[in-house]
Amino acid sequence: DNRTGRRVFDLRAQSGETEFRPGRKTPTAGFNGNYLGPTLRAKRGEKVEVRIRNGLDEASTVHWHGMHLPARMDGGPHRMIGPGGSWSPHWTVGQPAATLWYHPHPHGETESQVRRGLAGMFLVDDDRSERLALPRRYGVDDLPVIVQDVRFDGAKLAFGHKLMQNVGFLGDRTMVNGTLDPYAVVHDERVRLRLLNASTARTYRFGFTDGRGFALVGTDGGLLGRPAAMNRIQLSPGERAEIVVRMRPGDRTVLRSYPQGNYGDAWQSRFNGGDDTFDVLQLRAADTLRPSPSLPSRLAGQELPDPADAVRERYFELRKSGINGRKMAMDRIDETVTRGTTEVWTVHNGNGMPHNFHIHDVQFRIVSVNGRKPPVQLRGRKDTVFLPNGTTMKLALRFNGGPEFADPGTPYMFHCHLLYHEDGGMMGQFVVV
Ligand code: C2O
Ligand code: CU
Ligand code: CU
Q: Residues in domain Plastocyanin-like (predicted)?
């Protein structure tokens, strides 16, 4: 937009029908289409504005998951857009290159709206990421991989939970980018997969069927300091990972989700998805591949908060019935933090079932997991983290930002991102003052 100097995006939430399987239409919803939404992309330092229209026949919101932005622009459950209504949040992108996403956040209805297809990616670039020798041709060697589990009930998408599923809805097959039995044809020696777990309850543990490893290059909020060689990466709902996979001419391999191995206990694992296996995405290499540069040894300066700077500690006890014994209440502020300060939050799950923990506005550093140094996949910038039963984590967070970030009247959320739990009240509110 020439007048405002903003990069403007248009998003229209709408409902419609999708034919996931030939001849079988099912009601779905999406942004600018009938399922999922466009990938938005902006660069650090850029001003952005998203013109949202709600074409649904119910109220909704759009939240920018992982984005550092003033509370008024965050799209939480207080910022509802009625049917036929519109909202145009704007902010300056002020964070490192990362794979973020957007989705509705209406209190009590998030699971139902996300399940129907309301979600999309939001990619952030920065000067350094644009110069790095990582695959970055979108849709060519840099692929969005939005993973969701589904179940069909006849022609229709099923939504109900089974009896013992206390994590919420679990499907019996997966889709990538809204496609069943997906494959990607690759023409380059190296391909970057931007993995987003956009499922409402299911946790995945990704790896390749032929045993090949991959390089983890980024977590929720940005690139790692250096690539890390791995064989498996676990992602709970809302988490992201960027991985780079090496291909050989004519190669085929399958990205599979394996049994979790750390799901709290055997009963939970059996009835809540921890034992399941899914073939998620097949990669098919062309017979000749374009050479890709080898991975840089240094990726990014991570901009992680330092727990030594913490001025305050807080404690969060996770239960399905609420956090710190309290169910989410729209008119109660649970925590007040001071702009420009660093805090340490200790999060504990002793609830007998898996949960995760997501905090709006910030990217945190995981200082410890059960008193130990976190594994490499939990050492980068994170906004969501999986906590199986019996886990205690210490997180360092810094509440950065200019004066527009001080807003005692508009809360941000922290919550379990298993959406059935979130909708049921496993969420709290904090303000930055
Ligand atoms: Cu992805 Cu509060 O949400
Ligand atoms: Cu969020
Ligand atoms: Cu939970």
A: 15-128, 171-248, 318-433
CA of 66 to the centre of ligand 2 (A): 6
Ligand 1 neighbourhood includes 415 CB (under 6 angstroms): yes
Q: How far is the CA of 109 from the centre of ligand 2 (A)?
A: 15
Q: How far is CA 53 from the centre of its chain?
A: 23
Distance 207 CA to ligand 2 centre (A): 26
**Which residue segments constitute the domains of the chain, with CATH numbers given?**
7-126 (2.60.40.420), 142-290 (2.60.40.420), 307-432 (2.60.40.420)
pLDDT digits (tens, 9 = 90+) for 38-54: 999 999 999 999 999 99
Residue pair 365/395 in contact (Cβ under 8 Å)? The answer is yes
Q: Mean per-residue pLDDT for 70-75?
A: 98
Find the mean pLDDT for residues 394-420: 97
Looking at ligand 1, which atom is closest to the CA of residue 65? 1
User: pLDDT grade, residue 208 (50/70/90)?
Assistant: very high
Ligand 1 in reach of 65 Cβ (< 6 A): yes
Q: Among the atoms of ligand 1, which is closest to the Cα of residue 427?
A: 2
- State residue 3's pLDDT score: 83
Q: Are the CB atoms for 66 and 101 separated by under 8 Å?
A: yes
Asked if residues 103 and 21 have their Cβ atoms less than 8 Å apart, the reply is no
Assess contact for 94 and 401: CB atoms under 8 A. yes
* CA-closest residue to ligand 1 atom 1: 65
Q: Are 33 and 118 a contacting pair, CB within 8 Å? A: no
Q: What one-character DSSP code corresponds to residue 138? A: B
pTM above 0.95, yes or no: yes
| Long-range contacts (CB closer than 8 Å, 24 or more residues apart) made by 28-34 | 28/116, 28/117, 28/157, 29/56, 29/113, 29/116, 29/117, 29/118, 30/117, 30/118, 31/118, 31/120, 34/117
Q: Which residues pair with 359 in a beta bridge?
A: 414
